[in-house]
Amino acid sequence: MALFMALLLAADAETAERLMARKTARAVVLDLLPPGIQGEAFLQRLRVTRGPGIPVVVLTQKELDAAERLSLQKAGVTAVFRKAANLIAKSLTSELVAS
Residue 67: which H helix or E strand, with range? Predict the structure, then answer.
């Protein structure tokens, strides 16, 4: 039996919310600094509307302090990666699609 997973990309949090209203997400890769709604606000809305069941990986250029990391951990973020270059995003996306 073949399993297929579609990768949906959103340029901003508002678009992501619209996509997620129509599709069921198995995982989310979240940028904390997208245009429009900030990533933390998107994460909070995601947890209110979908609960803690969707794994969220944060990929960001933002320098996080200990309080921000703790807040993300309490929100159920699976992992936080600092963007060094687009290669990280492409590699991470490839790994998520493969799993």
Answer: helix 66-74
What values do phi and psi take at 26, rounded to 5? -95, -20
The token duo for 10 is 């959103």
3-state helix, strand, coil in the chain (%, to 5): 45, 15, 40
Every domain of the chain and the residues it spans: 13-98
77-82 sheet: strands from edge to edge: 28-30, 56-60, 77-82
Q: What kind of fold does domain 13-98 have according to CATH?
A: Rossmann fold (3.40.50)
User: Could you report the per-residue pLDDT of 38-76, keeping only the tens digit for each?
Assistant: 889 999 999 998 888 899 999 888 889 999 999 999 999
Pairing state of beta strands 28-30 and 77-82?
unpaired
